[in-house]
Amino acid sequence: MFINFFFDLKQASLPVSLKEYLMLMEAMNKRVVDSFNVNDFYYLSRSALVKDERYLDKFDRVFGHSFKGLENSEGGTEKEIPEEWLKLMGQKYLTDEEKKMVESLGGWEKLMETLKQRLEEQKKRHQGGSKWIGTGGTSPFGAYGYNPEGIRIGQKESRNKKAVKVWDKREFSNLDGDVELGTRNIKVALRRLRKFAREGVESELDLDNTIKSTAHKGYIDVKMMPERRNKIKVLLFFDVGGSMDAHVKICEELFSAARTEFKHMEYFYYHNCLYDAVWKDNKRRYNENIKTWDLLHKYPSDYKVIFVGDAEMSPYEITYPGGSVEFWNEESGETWLTRLLNVYENAIWFNPIPERYWDRISSASIIKQIFSDRMFPLTIEGIDQAMRELNK
Amino acid sequence: MKFEGTSSYIATEDLKVAVNAAITLERPIIVKGEPGTGKTMLAHEVAQSLGAEIITWHIKSTTKAQQGLYEYDAVTRLRDSQLGDEKVKDIKNYISKGKLWNAFESNKRPVLLIDEIDKADIEFPNDLLLELDKMEFFVYETGETIKAENRPIVIITSNNEKELPDAFLRRCFFHYIKFPDPETMEEIVNVHYPEIKKDLIQEAFKIFYDIREVPGIKKKPSTSELIDWLKLLMTDDVDAKILREKDPKKLIPPLHGALLKNEQDVHLFERLAFISRRENENLE
Ligand SMILES: Nc1ncnc2c1ncn2[C@@H]1O[C@H](COP(=O)(O)OP(=O)(O)O)[C@@H](O)[C@H]1O
Ligand SMILES: [Mg+2]
Fold first, then answer.
1. Which of A107, A193, B127, B233 is 20 to 30 Å from A61 at the Cα level?
2. B39 C-alpha to center of ligand 2: Å?
3. pLDDT of A120-165, one tens digit each?
4. β-bridge mates for residue B278, sequence order
């Protein structure tokens, strides 16, 4: 049952590491919870294994699945997890040396393998074996002389009045945005783009100045200066055209990472290519747009510009007036892009489509050319390179 | 050592299990949740119920990990040396202890609250990994090692503005404080105002939970705001009937300031759909 549980967690791609698994075992051994009440075990394993609320719902589902049979019986009494299981799981199944070995051998995968092997061995020895609650299969602990019939399945009175299992309530379902946890890596990559400036309270020793002034005055004259802060300023443009739907997630991640990393950041939406207007709210795109001219005047040229788009469209949409699929554009997309690039020296284009396809999409090639080759794939390396480019 | 909750703080069963796991295994616990869900208060309550000292390290965007260990004020020392101050001879005079140092040298196991860790730079937690794991650090200036006599109970709170690094998370227990459901909320309210009238709670809760559901609301009111608001209602002796008011414009005054804190939300509320829903309910 336990092994199933960990396999299931793994299968549901819940990021549980060996360290956390061992932490749970240690907590069981040290008897953090008095009785082996199922609810307590659920709470304990949850707090040891799940470190992001977005995974809580998934965890609940896996728990419910793995421990089917431990639910409250009709009489409302709560079953307990037989203590022996837990002990065996922690002690017999893996000795301290084994745990250490596993840790040094490369962690979780190896552990899983070991457990699986053990399980197979047990199965062989235990033909026909005993029936376990929930597993409907063989007792993995049979070899240790454990007889489930002999164990009392707790009759302790229910502490929770509610008849529903806690994990079946699925209280966290609205948190499961199914967002990949990729934003951290993106943030780290974005950090390349930092330009420090000293502003505010003078809190650091200015060594150069101190030496200079000391030499000049003939006594030690301490000079201070403000701390360095990231002063980078960024304009982000996101393509919200239909073909971008496939890339929504990575764009959201990039957006949320950028927002935390850059204190001075403005974002705008466009469709396929830049024309005479952009907008900030997709719902109000037609009544509340921002003229591109105004934007070029408003934000000084030391802003760094980042376009995000698949650059997939008909070439006319870039090169001809009136080429836009949505409205009559007096001037071509190329004209607008060039105008923008003339103002902002540091500009790059992120393309979520893998780099190897770019050559085959003529619109992408054209954009890349307009951007003087500064088109980068939306991968961690791509972001990394792009940030170096913007730093030039 | 076990945390069983206190008479002034409502701790759910799962929260208690997580806190006790952290206490027993001597590992940090990260408590996450919306602002106002009692994260900071939890640390104080844990300390109080265990009779332990609480040491609070409040994190800001400019906080550096080193500041939690110690800071060496070389500049003042340099200045003093010019004036021939005797203090200069002992470098210790220029080292100020950080919160971790305070916690490590405490002779009874203290509670160390690292409050709002997500406010700091994303690398901040990584910079504290080793110190929190080993509960010791080295002071280069004096060559001494500061090691915890009693591993403090470390409670870390986060409002989730930034993600925390995996390596850091793996070493901690974790608890997400779910926004209290009405039953739990009633318990919390009763802790604060044992005398409060039942029908006031009922009407106030209806409005409170409805406001939280309003799509697009900028600042969802939280537990602490509800508690402040109820206090206002009680001091002004507002009748529960007034809260049944269906015209949002008329309902706003008793809400403004406490539950609706910015103009945008007030405007949003004026155009509110849920009022009509309540109206329909009343017609039935
Ligand atoms: N479980 C609870 N029991 C009692 N009071 C609570 C509880 N949760 C929140 N409160 C009230 O809300 C206030 C704000 O809590 P606080 O700890 O500051 O929130 P956070 O740190 O999560 O932002 C507390 O001072 C207390 O009055
Ligand atoms: Mg707080």
1. A107
2. 6
3. 554 444 333 333 332 322 333 222 222 222 222 222 323 233 234 5
4. none
Report whether A184 contacts A260 (CB < 8 A).
no
Calpha distance A165→A143 (Å, rounded): 31
The answer to whether residues A236 and A266 touch, using CB atoms and an 8 Å cutoff, is yes
pTM of the model: 0.66
How far apart CA A10 and CA A22 sit, in angstroms, is 15
List alpha helices for chain B, DSSP H. Answer: 13-25, 39-50, 65-69, 74-83, 99-105, 124-134, 166-170, 182-192, 198-213, 223-235, 248-255, 263-270, 274-283
Rounded to an integer, what is the distance from CA A381 to the centroid of its chain? 17
Going from the Cα of A1 to the center of ligand 2, the distance in angstroms, rounded, reads: 39
CB B19 within 8 A of CB A32: no
**Structure-block tokens of residue B72:** 């060496």
Q: How far is CA A57 from CA A29, A51, A63, A175, A287, in A?
A: 27, 12, 10, 7, 40
Residue A71 corresponds to which tokens in the numbers above?
Answer: 């639910």
Q: Is B83 on the interface with A (CB under 8 A)?
A: no
pLDDT tens for chain B, 284 residues long, are: 789 888 899 999 999 999 999 999 999 999 999 889 999 999 999 999 999 999 999 999 889 999 999 999 888 888 888 888 888 889 999 999 999 999 999 989 999 999 999 888 888 998 999 999 999 999 999 999 999 989 999 999 998 766 788 889 999 999 999 899 999 999 999 999 999 998 889 888 988 998 888 776 778 899 999 999 898 888 888 777 777 777 766 676 677 777 887 777 777 777 665 555 555 555 44
Task: Report how many helices (DSSP H) and strands (DSSP E) chain A contains, helices first.
Answer: 15, 9
CA of A314 to the centre of ligand 2 (A): 53
Q: Where are the extended beta strands (E) located within chain A?
A: 196-205, 224-230, 233-239, 264-270, 277-279, 289-291, 304-308, 347-351, 375-377
What is the C-alpha to C-alpha distance for residues A381 and B122, in angstroms, rounded to an integer?
20
> B37 in ligand 1 pocket by Cβ < 6 Å?
yes
Element (H, E) at A13: none
ipTM: 0.85
Q: Does A172 touch chain B (CB under 8 A)?
A: yes
Provide the shortest C-alpha distance from residue A96 to chain B (in Å).
Answer: 17
Structure tokens at B126: 């990584």
Ligand 1 neighbourhood includes B106 CB (under 6 angstroms): no
Asked if residues A63 and A139 have their Cβ atoms less than 8 Å apart, the reply is no
CB-neighbour burial class of residue A75 (10 A; exposed 0-12, middle 13-18, buried 19+): exposed
On chain B, the residues whose CB falls within 8 A of the CB of A219 are 82
Ligand 1 centroid to B35 CA: how many Å?
9
Q: Is the CB of B35 under 6 A from ligand 1?
A: yes
- Our answer on whether the CB atom of B226 is closer than 6 Å to any ligand 1 atom is no
Two tokens at A382?
Answer: 């791509």
Q: Is the CB of B221 under 6 A from ligand 1?
A: no
Q: Is B7 helix (H, G, I), strand (E, B) or coil?
A: coil
> Which of B9, B224, B225, B228 for mutating ligand 1's site (highest number of atoms within 8 Å of CB)?
B224
Task: DSSP letter for B6, please.
Answer: B
The ligand minimizing its distance to the Cα of B222 is 1
Residues facing residue A235 across a β-bridge: A266, A305
